[in-house]
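Late entry, evening session. Most of the bench is empty. Finally got around to the prediction I had been postponing all week. Sequence below, unchanged from the version circulated by S.P.
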Amino acid sequence: MKSCKLCNNKPLSSSIYCIYHEIAYNNLKSGYKIWTDRYDSLDWKNYLRKLLELSTTGKFVKQVIMEEKDNCGHKE
């Protein structure tokens, strides 16, 4: 049985992530749109960096951010 790329949970059939990390990833994407509406020059990497600096960013989101930074890409 395959597991989530970031933990031992079962991944969703259409994803490399489990439900928790998939929700975190989707929240990152939707949050990025909101942030870019307010900060014109904010790119994906800087957005991720800023979120890592926030103490209120959750564990699952931080794990997804680290994976995104390692992949150097935006999966949209």
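Two things to note before I forget:
The chain is about 55% helix and 0% strand.
Residues 19-38 form the longest helix (20 residues).
Will write this up properly tomorrow.
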